[in-house]
Amino acid sequence: MEYKNNPYDLIHFINDATSPFHVVEKSISLLEEAGFEKIDVTKKWALKKGKSYYTAPYGSVLFAFTIPDDLENSNFRIAAAHTDHPCLRIKPIAEICEGDYLKVDTGIYGGPILNTWLDRPLSIAGKVSLKSDDIFHPGTKLVDFKRPILTIPNLAIHFDNTINKGVELNKQTDMLPLAGMMGENICKKDYFIKFLAKEIDADPEDILDFDLFIYNAEPGQIIGMNGDFISCPRLDNLTSVFSCINGIINSHRTTGINIIALFDNEEVGSLTKQGADSNLLTIILEKIYHSFAFEQSAFYESIMRSFLLSVDVGHCLHPNKPEKNDPVNKNVLNGGFVIKIDLNQKYAFDTEAIAVIQQICIANNIEYQKFINRSDIVGGSTLGAMVSSKLPMNTVDVGVPLLAMHSARELMGSKDQESLNSLIKAFFMA
User: Fold this and answer.
1) Strand partners, 213
2) Are 163 and 155 in contact, with CB atoms under 8 Å apart?
3) Non-local CB neighbours of 379 within 8 Å, separated by 6+ positions
């Protein structure tokens, strides 16, 4: 797999990556195709020089790395991204019956733009936990319905003639997807569980729990008079996941360890065992060093020589709201990936680290831009500052610029994925 600036490669990847679990599943398929070997994080590692490995603890996170032939005075080059996206999730008792309608009880995950989820074909993907002989290791199955089965209908303007002035949607009452019409067997106890069991070919009594995400079932498209844009769900942050996978597969240093770290739960703060604000990456890196019998001091020295790219999407100049951007620091779609700067360190950076990335770009003819918010607008944050506070190394936040970030369907420049892929590949080879 090597990205040749065919935007459909990214779109096909996103179409298959419908939940964090499916992001990892799809990524693993590409890694295994490239010869990466699976290892178990719960066991002792016996790694070999010149080999490539991956491990996927908890199902929604993924680490992949390459071991060089020479580990003397080695360091880590890390590219980190996240597998989750703002969306709706299904509650344990899912059925809501009202009038003649069957609805699904949902909660909001992260910070989606709620009204963009209305009037769209929606589907369901995620993980189901099943009874097992070993109670501490339940059975699991991934499920993706791969067809539209839900929708959230808007209220007609005839019933609210102020609707175009803006409507505040209630997360509990206004964001309940319509699933069907009630019939004789609809809305009886455990109807949703039985519906789910049929989809995964399991006994309903064997289903203990589930972690199910509602996703926009519309496929991505290339749009614009000259094909300038990609309109697609989940660009945040699967553009970054895609570039990390592409980079680790297509680059290999002779003297340093390259690693990608794909975390979950960034959209809700990362403070989980599978999030970037845990010690999970530290454990992975230490296990790599311990596999080669290095002393702990050698690990610390390597960390201080290492470099982290925190890869997440960025903002750009909005065509209808240019006043939302800084008056002179402006970046646009199709101008290259962005180096993300926040003077209060919500994006991780220092000037020497940025200079490193700029020199990589100059040497490899990679287009890039710099993004910084208006001083009176508080932007988002990323996982870069969290990881670098636990693993103190040079860190820079980068990503492709988006419009409509956190919408059910986001917009990017069709050329920008090429620049991000080229950066990460060059970063891993420099």
Assistant:
1) 89, 125
2) yes
3) 315, 342, 346, 347, 373
pLDDT at 188: 66
Q: Which CATH architecture has domain 87-216?
A: Roll (2.30)
Task: Give CATH for domain 7-84+234-429.
Answer: 3.40.630.10
What ranges do the domains of the chain cover? 7-84+234-429, 87-216
What whole-number distance in Å separates Cα of residue 266 and Cα of residue 269?
A: 5
266-290 mean pLDDT:
94
E-strand stretches of 29-121: 37-38, 52-55, 62-66, 76-82, 87-98, 101-109
Burial annotation 152-187 (CB, 10 A radius, 16+ → b, else e) = beeeeeeeeeeeeeeeebeeeeebbbbbbebeeebb
Instruction: Give residue-wise pLDDT tens across range 100-114.
Output: 899 999 999 999 999
Strands (E), 323-406: 337-340, 368-371, 394-399, 401-403
Dihedral (CA of 203, 209, 214, 220) sign: negative
Question: Residue 230 and residue 137: Cα distance in Å, rounded?
Answer: 41
* 114 three-state secondary structure: helix
Amino acid, res. 115: N
pLDDT tens string 129-169: 999 999 999 999 999 999 999 999 999 999 999 999 888 99
Question: Pick from 212, 214, 219, 213: which is nearest to 14 by CA?
Answer: 219
In this structure, what token pair is assigned to residue 357? 């990335």
Structure tokens given for 182: 């009630």
Residue ranges of alpha helices (H) inside 223-295 are: 235-249, 280-291
3-class SS of residue 364:
helix
Alpha carbon of residue 297 to chain centroid: 33
Which uninterrupted H or E stretch holds 178?
A: strand 178-181
* Cβ pair 200, 122 in contact under 8 A: no
Cβ atoms of residues 410 and 302 within 8 Å: no
Residue 186 has pLDDT above 80, yes or no: no
C-alpha distances in Å from residue 346, one per residue of 148, 309, 343, 378, 402 = 37, 14, 8, 10, 18
